[in-house]
Specification:
This protein is mainly alpha-helical and 94 residues long. Helices cover 45% and strands 10% of the residues. The protein is built from 3 helices and 2 strands.
Amino acid sequence: MNTIDNESLLWQVTQFIWHEAAILDAKEYDAWLDLWQPEGLYIIPIEDADDYAAVLNLCYDDDKMRRDRIKRFQDGFSISSAPLPSPYAPCLVL
């Protein structure tokens, strides 16, 4: 690949990243999902690795997990803010 091709590719990738960021900033999650191929993996690594499937990552989402994550965003559900079941619910002791 020559310098002109490299510069063109860099420009195209940069434009795509800005476009993706704008979609996410606007919370247009269905449009973000449309950017993906079904076999694509959304990976947020903790550190560099040769095989991200074999190490711990912040995210390692296939198509189903991406869609589940977006559904939680759209529904406003977060497991960390869900109420505890009653036997585990905090209680006030006087």
